[in-house]
From TrEMBL:
InterPro entries (UniProt xref): Fido, Fido-like_dom_sf, Fido_containing
Sample GO molecular function, one term: ATP binding
Top-level taxon in the UniProt lineage: Eukaryota
Binding site for ATP: D261, G262, N263, G264, R265, M266, A267, R268
Signal peptide: none
Protein name per its UniProtKB record: Predicted protein
Active site (UniProt): H257
Pfam families according to UniProt: Fic
Domain spans labelled Fido: 167-313
UniProt keyword annotations, A-Z: ATP-binding, Nucleotide-binding
Amino acid sequence: MIIHPSTIKESQDDVINGLMKEVEPEYRIKPTYLFKKEYTKWMNQGSALNFDLSYSLGNNLDEKLLFTIENVIRMSKMEQYQELFRSFKYGKQREYVFNSNKGENVGHQTLHETISSLQNYKEGNELSSKESNETVNTLKALEFLNETRSEMLSTLNESELHHSIMLFEDTIKECHSILMKGLVVNNGLYRQKQACAMRDDNTLLYYVDHDLVADRCVGLIDYYNTIVDECVGEDMFNVEKLFKLASYLAFNFVDIHPFSDGNGRMARLLANYVLSLHLPFPVTFSNDRKEYIAAVETFRNSHPQQFTVMLMENAFQSCLDFLKSNNLNNDKYNHQI
């Protein structure tokens, strides 16, 4: 949620002054994306799973999680399973829309209403509410990123596949324009006001000053593309590394908060854009919102591990769902991707 200065109890002048120069250091966003050498080292060497944290899996997190995700990725490349994956992806896209919007307190708050609105949209019926518009726009934005990557894939050879998840500023702006069409007047445009959010402890978290947003976004995109080329490119099938990259992009995007609204939904979309290099369906963020916020705060204050594992656990659950729904054996495909 964005709280503009005019809505805060303090006077507007006090807030602007605070944003520009008087805010306590701990209330300012730390530009994590600037720590390039440290993050690149973690991308290549650090383990996302080598610590005692799991929301739901208990012990043996490493073995269960990576083994299952990698197996499903292997299966997604086999011709005999393509129809199963197409059918499963269709359902997961709708589940993704529901969980993304529910996690950001927008759109329909039940899966039944979400599916109903998406069906009405597919049948060409008029959208009847703001919630319906928010719901349908999320699907459209997801489809836009899928189409963007498919277009890039058509121009690449096998050794260049990682370039299909390269990002460009225009792509991000167009995605936001689709996501927020009919919901805000400045969809696809960077915010022109200061913004902050209220933490659970009632302290204010101030985002990047609006006049720095464009430079910060370009810096984030440039470094992200560097990681894709240098870290992912040299080890394209390292699944753990891909999740690290997705968490890096999602967190730093929401930390910059470049738009007036829709930043949380955009961060989730961008994480899935990264993971689409290998994962055959979108990853839904099904964690409780408090767990999600806690993972974001931990990333901001100390380390990206918790946020990364949150992504991996959700992907793991989706992979299990695929295997179980099709009565498939998880041990059968234990070979190289």
